[in-house]
Predict the 3D structure of the following.
Amino acid sequence: MRKLLLALALMILTATMVQARPMVGDTVTLDDIGTSGTTSGGEFHLTIDGGFDFMAFCLELDESISRNGTYFIDSIGQYATSGGNNSDGSTPGKDFIGVETSFVMDSYASGNYATGWGGADTVANYLQRSIWELEEETAGYSSTFFTALQSAGVYTMSGNYDVYVINLVDKFGNNKQSMLVAESNPVPEPATMILFGTGILGLAAIRRRQRR
């Protein structure tokens, strides 16, 4: 019985981890519930088919998307499709994100910019504009936030960050916005948390029996 409960708990944990990442073909709904920013870019709140919510920011300045709209995931990777204002000629149709962009997105998702830069809207605006700057979508923005990123040596950083791009299309298959998402950000639906909690309770019961 003990082995069965342990196996069940591990299966639930594994299923939760697998479901946390969206998949090609999933339906994505955008809304502005609990989000910040006034740039007409991020922060966006994405709801994926599987019941997970993500915080996301835009990568492309010349591609549009509508709040409260419904879209479909065409591809997932380390690149934006079409390429926006800074297409990479060496990889037609793909504009790969830089490590600097991954770093600032991962830091934001981890809460590292939550204080010291002003209110939630201000921080979201700084991040969205910095992403556009880092991806060379524009050179028209400047801020103490972006300057601080440069001063902190972001450009010399290397590492693997759990950040990726969700490329969206509309129901007709037309390319829409490419959204930057952090892997550490998804929040599982309540039903999943209940199942996971059941597994933890099973493990707790095992420990009580062992102590007796």
